[in-house]
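Reviewer 2 asked us to include a model.

Predict the structure of this chain.
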Amino acid sequence: MSTTGTMGTAGKIGTRGAMTTTGTLTTPLKEVVEDLPLPAIGEPIIEVRNLTKRYGRNIVHQHLNLDIRRGEIVTIVGGSGSGKTTLVRQVLGLERPTSGTIKMFGEDISTIAPERARLMRTRTGMLFQHGALFSSLSVFDNVAQPVRELGKVPADLLRDIVMLKLEMVGLPCKHASKMPAALSGGMVKRVGLARAIVLEPELLFLDEPTAGLDPRSSDEVVELISTLHRALGLTVVLITHDLDAMVALSTRVAVLAERKVLVAAPVEEAACVDDPFIREYFLGMRGRRALQALPPERRAKLPPAALAPASVGAKPC
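Predicted model (structure tokens):
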């Protein structure tokens, strides 16, 4: 996290005239970033090589390879049991692979020293599927927890950091004293996002961020993720079954099937791969409906089957 707390955020989003001296937003973040370019795609910051993961005789991943570059939003998709969450847990160091290597920010996470690993974790944020808020802590204390774990922080600075992050995710500061049980599903996701970005990470992991939300709330969360990506220059790894969110957000889609990554490419290119799972996933009625929301220049790259009316079954490719 920036040593000055809120100043790190101000530098990233270029908010001249959009922040007070205490770090409070005076303009909604969505408006602040409207004219900002998307983050530039840079060097790989996650490199997975020849990864194999077994649980007894059950092989989840076998010789899996994947790169994720700085500035991307990469969505990991696959059927139930394909190992999406298991892959992310290994990247985060929560589980060890059976074999293979994982590098984050250029360092092999299996050999990194404990203190370096601790510092590396401060460069990442995680939104869990159901928010995973501490039920006994207020909204303020949930968001403040990662900062407090770093050591003693002056109370005024801590308050500024937490309130800014709540404003960035669209939650008025009046909600800071509420308990998680008093929040709607959409508000829980926003608090979880505020906690995930409170240390100003470079890399953000999102596990089913729209799960359990109504369509309006889902659209609002997708828009918020897009805004934070642009405002903070984040690299985002997204796990979702929400095809609309995948299409709206993804720089690339990594498709897990047959224990490996079949393809990692823009969604319009991934949909062209001749594979039974990909045809079923992308060219079914729901997949076609989502793909047809792509901008015209990207929609033109889709296979003909993806352009069939979404209300009828698709013809085979």
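Residues 215-232 form the longest helix (18 residues). Residues 1-5 have pLDDT under 50 and may be disordered. We have added this to the supplementary material.
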